[in-house]
Amino acid sequence: MDKDAPQQQGSEQSKTKGLGFGVMSREVQSIMLILVGGAIIRISLTDIFLRYVKPVMQPYLIVAGAFLLLLGVWALVDQIRRGSSHDEHDHDDDEFDDGHGHGPMRAAWFLLLPVFAIVLVAPPALGAYSAEKDTQTVAAPSDDLFPPLPDTDPIPLSLNEYAIRAVWDDQRSLAGRNVELIGFVTPNPDGGWWLSRMTMACCAGDATATKIHVVDPPEYEANTWVKLDGHWVPGGGVNSDSAIPWIAINSIHEVPQPKEPYE
Amino acid sequence: MSTSTPTKSRARVGALEILVGLLVIALIFRWQFTELFASPAIQTGATLFVSIVVQALPFLVLGVALSGAIAAFVPASFWHKVLPKNPALAVPVAGAAGVVLPGCECASVPIAGGLMRKGVTPAAALAFLLSAPAINPIVIASTFVAFPGQPEVALARFVASLIAAVIMGWLWLKFGKGEWLRLPKRGVHETGSKWKSFRLTAGHDFLQAGGFLVVGALVAAILNVAVPRDIVDAVASNPWISVLALAILAVLLCMCSEADAFVAASFTSFSNTAKLAFMVVGPMVDIKLIAMQGGWFSRSFVLRFAPVTFVVAVLCAVAVGWWLL
């Protein structure tokens, strides 16, 4: 066995000779597939994936991750089996050299970046930094009829729903009602803070912010999640998609970040 | 054994050694790594980067699975039967065939590469490459949803994208040179069983396209964090500059075509024609695609193909926008 090992290495060397630095060998290609597939499965089986994409993506992510994992394991098993039977090493060379002059597989190294980012850091959901940068857009509803609000008191609403009703509802359905909103604190550079929430169209890459101006706000740190029981007060403008509606506080307290940080 | 190993590793650092080295470094400096991400700007950039990659991955996997299946299971004769013999006719047929592929642009690059490997006229494969991510049912439906009460926007998108794709196919037929396209050698993955060929093609295609997707996502995330939004907003006021600005923004943002309609709709200060330009250009030319196509087909290809596609897409969007919107 000991005599075998260096010989193996020798043939490994001749196999990769001439490919240049950083060109991926077959074994590493398989390991990369396993790493990427594993990282995707890892975040999609927990709530972590909700920081980046919509909940509906979960099954697709699991299937995609499993596919990559399977592909990698299958290739690795094949390579190990073939490696122990001492042949086909020269044949393997063909598979690197696929006609590109500039080292085709070098770019695949970049796949380590998302793997590291996911496994080591798992960056948090977008928060106050993005919300402050984003210009408010409260899109006009497609028709003017708002369905009646439920009879509960307070009414749990999404920030988006609150903003649309506050800005675009001529019937003022929010007037005189208590609402319950959950969002995070985004400091307003002009003082105070906005209750805010990010909305994804597709993934966090295209998320937009909904911000609501809080009247007489207590002190909170940026990115603190709060549950705000409050009522609508006029202010911030109406019938304009850049309006930032107002809310006055009945009661407010800190809450943990919701499972789905986006609306 | 102990004497021979050091000399050999000095002689050559293999990919496996690099990988192990990187993993060890990442584990050792894990805390420094995490601290670096304490800054809100870097943290936001990292979130955007990861989310673009994660969102695109299932589509990319679908694409490489299809391209692998095309390579392994669909005989070359099938394409010769389906596509007209005359390349000039094959281009619009392939362009219209984009209707049936429910994917985004990440998936279409490996599929178009797979088609060319199978001997499909490059012009037809390129028309398919450009049209598929823009005119498939999911994208048109999402455009329809994003512009409530304005079905003409979805129609305009369909028409403008298809015309632009077909024009590009014909331009390639007239001026394109085969030497610009350097595809993976044919026949390499066709040794052994069909399943082995599927595995090799899909794995290879994923690593190739995935690497460039990561580069594109990285650039998009950095731009998103670094370019202030008010600069973008200031441009919106001029109708001509606004068309060009949204077209360029589409190139920079690297949006998935299945999502870009919602973003386009959110540019409320811009004209519908400018939004159309955003939605026609985005699936055809963006940084991520340029990187992917460059890696796939060669740099000299993408240096010619991407700018021409950009011009053709903008002109089609303006013409169709003027006609329909």
Question: What does it look like?
Answer:
By secondary structure, chain A is α/β, with parallel strands linked by helices. Chain A folds into two domains: 4-121, no CATH class; 129-254, OB fold (Dihydrolipoamide Acetyltransferase, E2P), CATH 2.40.50. Helices cover 36% and strands 17% of the residues of chain A. In chain A, strand 2 and strand 3 (193-199) form a beta hairpin. The longest helix of chain A has 27 residues, at 58-84. The N and C termini of chain A lie far apart (60 Å). Chain B is mostly helical and 325 residues long. Helix content of chain B is 78%, strand content 0%. In chain B, helix 4 runs antiparallel to helix 11 (194-226) and helix 11 runs antiparallel to helix 16 (287-297). Chain B has one domain. The longest helix of chain B is centred in the N-terminal third of the chain and has 34 residues, at 40-73. Chains A and B meet through helix 1, helix 2, helix 3, helix 4 and helix 5 of A and helix 1, helix 2, helix 3, helix 4 and helix 11 of B.
